[in-house]
Amino acid sequence: MTNYEIKEYLFDRESVGLLPDVPRLSNWPVVYVLNGPAGKGRLGAVYLGETVSFTSRMRQHIEKEDKRERLRQVRVVLDERFNKSVCLDLESRLIQYAAGDGSLEVLNRNTGVTDADYFDRDSYREMFDDIFNDLREAGVFQRTIPQIVNSELFKLSPFKALTHDQGIAVVDIMEGLTQDLSDELGAGDLIFVTGDPGTGKTVVAIYLMKLISDVGDGRDVEEVDGDNMFADFYLEDTRKLFQGLKIALVVPQQALRKSIGNVFKNTPGLHPDMVMSPWDVANSDEDFDIVIVDEAHRLNQYSAQVHSRNKEFKDINARLYGGQKPDASQLDWLRTKSKHVILMFDQKQSVRPHDLPKEEFAEILDGAGGQKPRTYSLVTQMRSLGGNDYIQYVYDVLSNRPPRERLSFGDSYELGLVDSPRTLVELINAREEEHGLSRIVAGYAWKWVSRKIDGPDFDIDLGEGVRLPWNSKKVDWVTSANAINEAGSIHTVQGYDLNYAGVIIGEDLRFDPLTESLYIDKSNYHDTQGKQNNKLRNRETTTEMLTEFITSIYAVLLTRGIRGTFIHVVNPELREYLGRYFPTIG
Known about the structure:
Layout: E1 5-10, H1 13-17, H2 23-26, E2 30-36, E3 44-51, H3 54-62, H4 65-70, E4 73-78, H5 84-101, E5 104-106, H6 121-137, H7 145-149, H8 152-155, H9 164-183, E6 189-195, H10 201-217, H11 236-242, E7 247-250, H12 254-265, E8 275-276, H13 278-283, E9 288-293, H14 310-321, H15 330-337, E10 338-345, H16 358-365, E11 374-378, H17 387-397, E12 414-417, H18 421-435, E13 438-442, E14 460-463, E15 466-468, E16 487-488, H19 490-493, E17 498-505, E18 509-512, E19 517-520, H20 528-531, H21 543-558, E20 561-569, H22 572-578
Parallel strand pairs: 3-5, 6-10, 6-11, 7-8, 7-9, 9-10, 12-20, 13-16, 13-17, 17-20
Antiparallel strand pairs: 1-4, 2-3, 2-4, 14-15, 18-19
Helix pairs in contact: 5-6, 9-10, 10-11
């Protein structure tokens, strides 16, 4: 399919007025791209759309002052085989690529991105990338498709086509918020969105931020498609409820927070300052209307904090509660500072003793002391090509109730044990060359000695000449220039997607062939913050707790890879045990 053509016109009153009134432009499905150059202190802009009457649509657009100011050219994609479904699909694809390109502000709402099936979709999609490449050659976009799809701008973009369960969750959350805002409820209302790794909790969090912002902004409401599942939220009475709200996206992990902030910088209606830590919210002079928390299982309890933050924790509790709640948690802070708190949550991904304990979350979910919070579940696997079965399989293998048989996950997902560390490095380097975004990650079974000025230049020595330093960057390590030559820890990759993960399992996790059980070696676990007791709450980090943390860390690492996971196991007994469930490759 290569019969499309792209027509180019200037976008000004005179040129739009002279657009020819011919059938292909006035009565046929098309996709168009409006773009304009960068201005002082801001990026260029792009708006993508589909219509059955291009000429009249451009006359509507030219009457909008914001579009006249920022947009200069329009290109329309024409093909006699186009229909409404094809155009909606192409429009969605181009919006997502534009958001990941990074050189432009995408002026669209995110509600225009869909992923509906239709007749002969695969054959139509074969030409979509050709259309993008033609637009790139014309100077509309800067990056190639492989560069875009591997970027955090693309992966963390609010311009995503939601799965069915994500869409239902977003609609239900928005309907609940609409009712709650009408009732003017007090602070502390909780909503939980639960799901396994890869089900898109971060996608829902970022999508909600954009949707709430756009509904409150209310611009171009007449352009909202009445068939869109979010159309009712743009009705005037609802829009008024969302106008002027103070909203924030709270991200406990520093690395992920910085990456999402970079996305918000390029997204109209959003701003990097909206991406906050729990500390930022607690120390803010203002209260919030809505706080959305990504990776909520990483919220902290009152405990000894790294970088001398223990005093700040005490000061915040004293200021917020006047001495009445000296052991208040970060979740308590958020409930105090915001009317509505939406938590993206997976208790299995808690990895440190100062993470809020599962017992406290369980009490809240059970409605202890009040009404049960609303809860929505995400089940569709978006990350791993191994599907939902692979995620559950990993957790089962790392449990005391392992699978009864080995499962296979098809040719689309590469998976296996790699006995040779040199082969592991070669496999990851080869996948990096072919697909990009392939990284080696490891459990915290080696000390971080390379950060010392007089220390060695490596931390992990696996033999066969394979010596790796820990991640040299705490923020944006996954996309950093030297990441391919380093090993990432749990704190640099939790919440991120990789194409391929090379996972090193160290001597902190072992297997006892006599008892047929997994166990941990605390002396080989070197995350100091990950095993200390919580003296401030009189909570001991027991061996049972530490076993949960360490197995959770490895489960998270083993579920980062979209296309595949290669596993190198240091402990021979554990390697033999895992060989029951994973094939050996290399």
